[in-house]
Design goal:
With 316 residues, this protein is α/β, with parallel strands linked by helices. It has eight helices and eleven strands. The chain has an eleven-stranded mixed sheet, with helices on both faces. 52% of the residues are buried.
Amino acid sequence: MLQRALLLSLALLISGPATAGWRDRTNNDEATVIDLRHNGEQRRYALYLPPGLDPDKPAALVLAFHGGGGHAEFMADDARYGLIGKAREAGFVVAFPNGHSRFPRGRLATWNAGGCCGNARDSNSDDVGFTRAVVADIGRRVAIDRQRIFATGMSNGGMMAYRLACEAADLVRAVAAVAGTEAVADCRPSRPVPILHIHARNDTHVLFDGGAGPEAFRDASKVMDFVSVPETVRRWVGRNACQTQAERILERPGAWCERYSGCRDDATVELCVTSDGGHSWPGADSVRRGKEGASQALDASDTIWTFFSQVAGARR
């Protein structure tokens, strides 16, 4: 097993351009930064392989999209998101694509999720194509189970995950969005897509009942009149032909979750709501300075991986 792990690490290094890793401060694990040219633009993503990964056994892959104005390094910080720690524990591969940015190191990046956001939307950045290129590049480096590719994201990154559900259902098996509602004007998925949505009731950026809060973006023209959480869920319940009556599957102080079942191809739709936490990733130990602390009533990373595991048996 050790020999196989060493061969896998060597393959990762020699199969394409890579730069020094972004080391996670919390668990001291490292995600390797990989440069990738797409549509004439220099892009990048960070890739984390958990210890003990068997190169002969295709692994599940989670694509994790950062929020608007962020970057892949920020999304890879376990104190804020916990996805590397979860990948290490559960044995899946996690990739952190970097959005469209005008800066050499990919900072202040956004995703073209349809109606939002920023320069990625305004320049019509091909972020669906870039995501496909990222997955193809990862597939050249490590064995990936094509039936267990999932997408998650925070805020604008959650909106990007929804766009993939709409336009790349052949690529991603299921999506989980946190604090980011659907932003695609015309969504026609090629098949039913299991959906998990996580949102704080008091989100001040992407308002639960629709619209952009005062803290959504310094320039209102760079965002949109956000679709509400109930409308986003209603749309996917309809697309997946689910029963319209939800079942409460979790209720505790500060959080609850419900599931819409009876869907075509068992593509359930789930909604988890926290009472507080604002515009943040539930369960996070750290948030940006000046923001409300994340809700501790729910751990988003655990909830997301449980959902993905149930969808396609992704648990190792």
